[in-house]
Design brief:
166 residues, mainly alpha, 2 domains, two-stranded antiparallel sheet, 2 strands
Length: 166
Protein backbone atom coordinates (compact mmCIF):
# COMPACT_ATOMS: atom_id res chain seq x y z
CA UNK A 1 0.00 0.00 0.00
CA UNK A 2 2.72 2.48 0.99
CA UNK A 3 4.64 1.74 -2.21
CA UNK A 4 1.57 2.57 -4.30
CA UNK A 5 1.03 5.81 -2.35
CA UNK A 6 4.65 6.73 -3.12
CA UNK A 7 4.05 6.04 -6.81
CA UNK A 8 0.93 8.25 -6.80
CA UNK A 9 2.68 11.08 -4.94
CA UNK A 10 5.73 10.93 -7.22
CA UNK A 11 3.42 11.10 -10.25
CA UNK A 12 1.76 14.22 -8.83
CA UNK A 13 5.13 15.88 -8.14
CA UNK A 14 6.08 15.19 -11.76
CA UNK A 15 2.83 16.74 -12.97
CA UNK A 16 3.32 19.81 -10.73
CA UNK A 17 6.81 20.30 -12.20
CA UNK A 18 5.47 20.01 -15.75
CA UNK A 19 2.74 22.57 -15.05
CA UNK A 20 5.26 24.98 -13.49
CA UNK A 21 7.42 24.72 -16.59
CA UNK A 22 4.47 25.18 -18.94
CA UNK A 23 3.43 28.26 -16.96
CA UNK A 24 6.94 29.67 -17.46
CA UNK A 25 8.06 29.38 -13.83
CA UNK A 26 11.38 27.77 -14.66
CA UNK A 27 13.89 30.55 -14.21
CA UNK A 28 16.40 28.57 -12.13
CA UNK A 29 14.43 25.38 -11.62
CA UNK A 30 14.77 25.90 -7.87
CA UNK A 31 11.03 25.86 -7.18
CA UNK A 32 10.41 22.73 -9.26
CA UNK A 33 13.35 20.97 -7.63
CA UNK A 34 12.13 21.93 -4.16
CA UNK A 35 8.85 20.07 -4.63
CA UNK A 36 8.72 16.92 -2.53
CA UNK A 37 6.27 14.85 -0.55
CA UNK A 38 6.06 12.80 2.62
CA UNK A 39 3.66 10.02 3.45
CA UNK A 40 2.67 10.31 7.09
CA UNK A 41 0.94 7.59 9.02
CA UNK A 42 -1.95 8.81 11.17
CA UNK A 43 -4.28 7.09 13.60
CA UNK A 44 -6.88 6.71 10.86
CA UNK A 45 -4.77 6.16 7.75
CA UNK A 46 -2.18 8.06 5.78
CA UNK A 47 -1.64 11.61 4.63
CA UNK A 48 0.40 12.63 1.61
CA UNK A 49 1.90 16.02 2.42
CA UNK A 50 3.45 18.11 -0.37
CA UNK A 51 6.19 20.69 0.21
CA UNK A 52 7.98 23.37 -1.80
CA UNK A 53 9.87 26.64 -1.39
CA UNK A 54 8.02 29.34 0.62
CA UNK A 55 7.42 31.45 -2.46
CA UNK A 56 5.46 28.63 -4.14
CA UNK A 57 2.32 30.15 -2.59
CA UNK A 58 2.95 33.43 -4.43
CA UNK A 59 3.61 31.62 -7.71
CA UNK A 60 0.45 29.58 -7.20
CA UNK A 61 -1.85 32.36 -5.93
CA UNK A 62 -0.32 35.45 -7.48
CA UNK A 63 -0.09 38.75 -5.61
CA UNK A 64 -2.89 41.29 -5.54
CA UNK A 65 -2.25 44.82 -6.69
CA UNK A 66 -1.49 47.41 -4.01
CA UNK A 67 1.01 45.15 -2.29
CA UNK A 68 4.75 45.87 -2.13
CA UNK A 69 7.03 42.92 -2.79
CA UNK A 70 10.65 42.51 -1.71
CA UNK A 71 12.95 44.52 -3.95
CA UNK A 72 15.85 42.28 -2.86
CA UNK A 73 14.05 39.15 -4.06
CA UNK A 74 13.24 40.92 -7.32
CA UNK A 75 16.86 42.03 -7.76
CA UNK A 76 17.99 38.43 -7.36
CA UNK A 77 15.38 37.34 -9.92
CA UNK A 78 16.39 40.11 -12.36
CA UNK A 79 20.02 39.04 -12.15
CA UNK A 80 19.22 35.32 -12.52
CA UNK A 81 16.95 35.99 -15.47
CA UNK A 82 19.62 38.12 -17.17
CA UNK A 83 17.26 41.08 -17.48
CA UNK A 84 19.98 43.48 -16.33
CA UNK A 85 23.58 43.39 -15.17
CA UNK A 86 25.53 45.64 -12.86
CA UNK A 87 24.22 46.73 -9.48
CA UNK A 88 22.69 50.00 -10.65
CA UNK A 89 20.81 48.45 -13.60
CA UNK A 90 19.66 45.45 -11.53
CA UNK A 91 18.30 47.75 -8.79
CA UNK A 92 16.56 49.98 -11.34
CA UNK A 93 14.92 46.99 -13.03
CA UNK A 94 13.89 45.51 -9.65
CA UNK A 95 12.28 48.79 -8.55
CA UNK A 96 10.47 49.12 -11.89
CA UNK A 97 9.12 45.57 -11.65
CA UNK A 98 8.16 46.17 -8.02
CA UNK A 99 6.14 49.22 -9.06
CA UNK A 100 4.51 47.25 -11.89
CA UNK A 101 3.49 44.49 -9.45
CA UNK A 102 2.18 47.13 -7.03
CA UNK A 103 0.08 48.63 -9.83
CA UNK A 104 -1.08 45.46 -11.62
CA UNK A 105 -0.51 42.64 -9.17
CA UNK A 106 1.29 39.49 -10.14
CA UNK A 107 1.34 37.97 -12.59
CA UNK A 108 1.59 41.18 -14.56
CA UNK A 109 0.18 41.36 -18.09
CA UNK A 110 3.72 41.10 -19.47
CA UNK A 111 4.40 37.88 -17.55
CA UNK A 112 2.11 35.94 -19.89
CA UNK A 113 4.82 36.14 -22.56
CA UNK A 114 6.65 33.39 -20.61
CA UNK A 115 3.83 30.83 -20.56
CA UNK A 116 3.26 28.11 -23.12
CA UNK A 117 -0.21 27.17 -21.83
CA UNK A 118 -1.73 30.61 -21.17
CA UNK A 119 -1.67 30.17 -17.39
CA UNK A 120 0.54 31.78 -14.73
CA UNK A 121 -1.17 30.80 -11.46
CA UNK A 122 -2.94 27.92 -9.71
CA UNK A 123 -0.46 25.25 -10.78
CA UNK A 124 -1.46 23.14 -7.75
CA UNK A 125 -5.22 23.39 -8.29
CA UNK A 126 -4.84 22.74 -12.02
CA UNK A 127 -2.75 19.59 -11.57
CA UNK A 128 -5.08 18.13 -8.95
CA UNK A 129 -8.20 19.01 -10.98
CA UNK A 130 -6.75 17.57 -14.21
CA UNK A 131 -5.81 14.36 -12.42
CA UNK A 132 -8.80 14.06 -10.09
CA UNK A 133 -10.26 10.96 -11.76
CA UNK A 134 -6.88 9.21 -11.80
CA UNK A 135 -6.18 10.14 -8.16
CA UNK A 136 -9.56 8.86 -6.99
CA UNK A 137 -9.24 5.67 -9.03
CA UNK A 138 -5.77 4.97 -7.62
CA UNK A 139 -6.75 5.73 -4.04
CA UNK A 140 -9.84 3.54 -4.35
CA UNK A 141 -7.74 0.68 -5.76
CA UNK A 142 -5.05 1.08 -3.09
CA UNK A 143 -7.49 1.11 -0.19
CA UNK A 144 -9.73 -1.56 -1.72
CA UNK A 145 -6.72 -3.88 -1.94
CA UNK A 146 -5.75 -3.03 1.64
CA UNK A 147 -9.26 -3.73 2.97
CA UNK A 148 -9.48 -6.97 0.98
CA UNK A 149 -6.10 -8.08 2.33
CA UNK A 150 -7.07 -7.27 5.92
CA UNK A 151 -10.42 -9.02 5.52
CA UNK A 152 -8.70 -12.09 4.07
CA UNK A 153 -6.32 -12.13 7.08
CA UNK A 154 -9.21 -11.88 9.55
CA UNK A 155 -11.11 -14.66 7.79
CA UNK A 156 -8.01 -16.88 7.74
CA UNK A 157 -7.38 -16.27 11.44
CA UNK A 158 -11.01 -17.01 12.29
CA UNK A 159 -10.96 -20.17 10.16
CA UNK A 160 -7.73 -21.34 11.87
CA UNK A 161 -9.18 -20.58 15.31
CA UNK A 162 -12.42 -22.43 14.42
CA UNK A 163 -10.53 -25.50 13.12
CA UNK A 164 -8.27 -25.52 16.19
CA UNK A 165 -11.28 -25.55 18.49
CA UNK A 166 -12.84 -28.66 16.93
Amino acid sequence: MIKRLHILAAFLIDQLRKELEAQGHNNTGELAESLRYEIKSTSDGYNIVFYGKDYAKFVNNGIRSGKWVSVMALAKWVEERGIASGDKEIKAAAFAIRQKIYNEGSPTRGAFAFTSNGRRTEFVEIVFAQNEDYILKELFAIFNDEITSRLDNVLAQNKAAFLASE
